[in-house]
Each structure stands twice: as structure tokens, then as C-alpha cells.
Design goal:
The chain is globular and about 70 Å long. It is 38% helix and 16% strand. The protein folds into three domains: 111 residues, Alpha-Beta Complex (Aspartate Aminotransferase, domain 1); 215 residues, 3-Layer(aba) Sandwich (Aspartate Aminotransferase, domain 2), CATH 3.40.640.10; 80 residues, HAD superfamily/HAD-like (Rossmann fold), CATH 3.40.50.1000. Helix 5 packs across helix 10 and helix 12 runs parallel beside helix 14. By secondary structure, it is of the alpha/beta class. The structure holds pyridoxal-5'-phosphate (PLP). The site of pyridoxal-5'-phosphate has 13 residues, from helix 5.
């Protein structure tokens, strides 16, 4: 066998790329791309600042947090493993129960890390379509084989927000007793029904939960798996001994001790916000599955339309999650996280209207821009200053190229959603109502 001249990745890693989401160059101050919850109470940090320095000096123990979670869910501590985010718990579970020759059944689309974790352990991914609506239990059951090592039920599912029912879990667990039922409830707090009790009553199910979403601690990287002690022991064995830092364990304990009144308030806000976002996006022609998570998915006819919404919102300082042309079931899709407060919701609703239903298309006319007065619109300009004025007025800022124009990089740095040669370059993404009125013409260059 010939020896390669330099280090090469294993077969499992060779086909993978690091997790990366598309970013726009415009300045962003409202991030609605990661499904994070709102910030936790500030006292949490004060408590950490006052902690004994042993918290940093010593290797950490997650046992106190596991005991607190066990008490919360009425379990034995051996039935809880605390991990570095739900991600760590899921990856360990795949390591523990999957491998070459074993299959994992995944709904598609779903959380993008799941197929990656499967590939890392050499398992075969079996996709079952779940575009939204009811969980495809019959199709999943038809896909079960003696080699099935795990069946994933992500509920609410990311990125659609669709949910499974307790009966789906019971049927799956009974029909595939040789497989682990991976019940990923990362967004479970936001759903109408908590599947935790149903899943915990099953002999082959593990429940995955996280402090990252409803509890507002994504930066602490805290998640956990719950289930039968034997299954949990394999998940524990498949990870490193000190995966979660001492400060994160302390934050989790303090967060639980403070109670969940603020989590419940956040969930109530999210439910109202996702209804408002769904309604507006559907009115604007997007296909939006019913969501029970803290985000909504908007499907447009093609990738260009989705890319436009992503860019236009970035022009207004808002980041949302744009999906690529692959996998095909997410081509043309944008996922928007509920902001979690009234001011930001008003802002994002206006930005969506500006991007998708502009009442006015203005070219280099500050007076007309001033007259917009909160109405949705697009503003074409050759200057960084014009871009800033458009952003301040809530109009989608679009840079124009030309001999006298500021350089395209300067226009994007100022916040331009796009830099184009003239308004007609955007004809492909113009809403039909606006197209009927005709495009304004670009200013003549003297
Ligand atoms: C469905 C689902 N599961 C698990 C996770 C992992 O979250 P974390 O590792 O932050 O707990 C995410 C994160 O986005 C998710 O969407």
C-alpha cells in the first residue's frame, strides 16, 4: 500500500465539512438565525462571579446537576447524563448505538448535525420525508430493518417546527425494540404537548433536552439525556469525563434553582410571535408549515427568492438562516427565529414586509425616502450614506454601481442588501404587485 505524503482524514471525516451557515457582509444587530432563546436573568452571572475559585481549579463534576435534573423529572440520577449541549448527547448516543453496518432512520429535513454524527461513526442514514404535518410513523416503520440501531424523532422538528405525538413514540418503540428511539426535544418547551413523560415510559427511548433554547443558555453548552439507566450508562461511557465545564454546571444549577417562571413567559411570547410571523409570511406567498418551536420555516418557489429575503433582512440588520440548494427539500427555505420581545417582533415584521411587499421603490431620492414613514420599501443608492439613511428609514438598502458610486465593498459594509447595476437587476425577486407598476429607472450618471 502506498503511503500518503501528508496526513489524510479518515474515510468518515473525509466527506465532511465544518458546520457553517451563510453570512452576509452587512452589519447585523438582530440575530434570528440560531433559535436561541432570550437572555437569562443577570443575577446568574453575579452568582458565578461570587463563586469559590475551586470551581475553576478543580476538574468539574456534573453529578449535582444530574441529581437536580433527576429530581425535576422524577428519575434516579443514573437515568440522567449532562453533556456539552444536546449536540454532545446526540453524538455520544450515535457513537454508543451506531457504527458500520447499523442504520439510523432520520426524518428529512431535520437537524443538520444528525446525518453528520451518523457519518462520523460510519452508520447508514435512512431518510424518511417529513416536510411538515403529522410524523410519518408508517413510513418510518416500513424502513425498520434488523440493522436499525436508532430512530430519530425530533419534535418539534428543526427546521419545520412540526411535532410528533405520544402514540407515534409508542408505536415506534414497540415495533423496533432493538433500536434506540432518539427523542430530541430541544424545542420541547415551546410545543403544546411535552413528550417527555411518554418517552420516559418506554424501555428503548432516550430523551434529549437542552438549556440552549427556552432557557437562554446556548453559550454555556449545557444539555442532557434522560432514559433507562442502562441506555444512559452507554451514553455516559461514550463521552469524555469532563465534557461540561464547572462554570456551566454552576449556571445550570442556578438556573434550575431560580425556577422557570421566565421560561414560561418566554414560551408564551414565542407562541404569539410565531403566529404573527406565520400569518405575515403566508400572506406574502410563502409556504409555512405549522410550527410548535421558537422559529418558523418559510418556503419560497426557488433559492433566489429565499436568498433575496435573507439578503434584504441582512440589509436591515437582521440575520436569518438561509438553506442552500442542497438538500432539495430545503432549497428555497429560510428559517426565522422568534425574537422573544415586542420591539424586535415589530422590527422583523416590518423588515419582512419591506423585503417581500415593498409599497415603493425609490432611487436616490431622500425626500421620497423620508415620506415612506414606516411604509415598506426598497431604496436604491450609490452612496454609503444613502444606505445608512435607508436602513434608518426601514427601507431595504440596495447599492447601485456606477462611475461616481462608492465602491461595492463600502456599500455592503454600510449595510447594502445587494449591490446591483440598476433596479432591473432585481426583477427576478420583485413581488408581482410591484412588477405590475413597473420599475423605477436608475439615476443618470452626469
Ligand atoms: C433539534 C436540535 N437538537 C439539538 C440541538 C443541539 O442544541 P445544543 O447543543 O445547543 O443543546 C439543536 C440545536 O440547534 C437542535 O436544533
Amino acid at each position: 500500500m502506498t503511503r500518503p505524503a501528508r496526513p489524510t482524514p479518515s474515510d468518515a471525516v473525509a466527506g465532511l465539512t465544518a458546520y457553517r451557515v451563510p453570512r452576509h457582509g452587512a452589519p447585523i444587530d438582530l440575530v434570528l438565525s440560531g433559535n436561541e432563546g432570550v437572555a437569562p436573568p443577570r443575577e446568574l452571572l453575579a452568582g458565578l462571579a461570587a463563586a469559590d475559585l475551586e470551581l475553576l481549579r478543580r476538574y468539574p463534576s456534573a453529578a449535582p446537576l444530574e441529581a437536580a435534573l433527576a429530581a425535576r423529572f422524577g428519575l434516579d440520577p443514573a437515568q440522567v447524563v449532562v453533556t456539552a449541549g444536546g449536540d454532545d448527547a446526540l453524538e455520544r448516543t450515535f457513537r454508543a448505538f451506531l457504527g458500520p453496518g447499523r442504520e439510523v432512520i432520520l426524518p428529512a429535513p431535520t437537524f443538520v448535525m444528525l446525518p453528520k454524527y451518523a457519518q462520523l461513526v460510519g452508520a447508514t442514514v435512512v431518510d424518511v420525508p417529513w416536510p411538515g404535518g403529522a410524523f410519518p410513523t408508517d413510513a418510518v416503520l416500513a424502513a425498520v430493518t434488523p440493522d436499525t440501531g436508532a430512530i430519530c424523532v425530533v419534535s418539534p422538528n428543526n427546521p419545520t417546527g412540526a411535532v410528533a405525538a405520544g402514540d407515534d413514540l409508542r408505536r415506534l418503540a414497540a415495533a423496533a425494540p432493538h433500536a434506540v428511539l432518539v427523542v430530541d426535544l430541544a424545542y420541547g418547551e415551546m410545543a403544546a404537548v411535552d413528550l417527555t413523560p411518554v418517552a420516559l415510559a418506554l424501555p428503548n427511548a432516550l430523551v434529549f433536552r437542552t438549556f440552549s433554547k427556552a432557557w437562554g443558555l446556548a453559550g454555556a453548552r449545557l444539555g442532557y439525556a434522560l432514559g433507562p439507566a442502562e441506555l444512559v450508562s452507554w451514553v455516559r461511557a461514550a463521552g469524555n469525563p469532563y465534557a461540561v465545564s464547572g462554570p456551566s454546571v454552576a449556571l445550570g444549577l442556578a438556573r434550575l434553582a431560580a425556577g422557570d417562571a421566565d421560561v414560561r413567559r418566554y414560551v408564551a411570547t414565542v407562541r404569539a410571535e410565531r403566529a404573527a410571523l406565520t400569518e405575515l409570511l403566508r400572506e406574502a406567498g410563502a409556504e409555512v408549515p405549522d410550527s410548535e418551536a421558537n422559529f418558523v420555516l418559510a418556503r419560497f418557489p426557488d433559492h433566489a427568492a429565499a436568498q433575496w429575503l435573507h439578503d434584504a433582512l441582512a440589509g436591515l440588520g437582521i440575520a436569518v438562516r438561509l438553506f442552500g440548494e442542497e438538500p432539495p427539500e430545503l432549497c428555497g427555505a429560510v428559517r426565522i427565529t422568534c425574537p422573544g420581545n415586542a420591539n424586535d417582533l415589530t422590527r422583523v415584521l416590518h423588515a419582512l414586509r419591506s423585503a417581500l411587499e415593498p409599497g415603493a421603490l425609490i432611487v436616490e431620492d431622500r425626500l421620497a425616502l423620508a415620506c415612506l414613514e414606516g411604509q415598506p420599501g426598497w431604496y436604491f443608492t450609490t452612496t454609503a450614506e444613502g444606505i445608512a439613511a435607508a436602513r434608518a428609514a426601514g427601507a431595504v438598502p440596495i447599492g447601485l454601481t456606477g462611475p461616481e458610486a462608492d465602491p461595492p465593498e463600502a456599500l455592503v459594509a454600510a449595510g447594502a442588501a445587494r449591490v446591483v447595476s440598476g433596479p432591473d437587476a432585481l426583477e427576478g425577486v420583485l413581488p408581482a404587485a410591484v412588477r405590475a407598476q413597473g420599475l423605477p429607472s436608475a439615476p443618470r450618471v452626469p
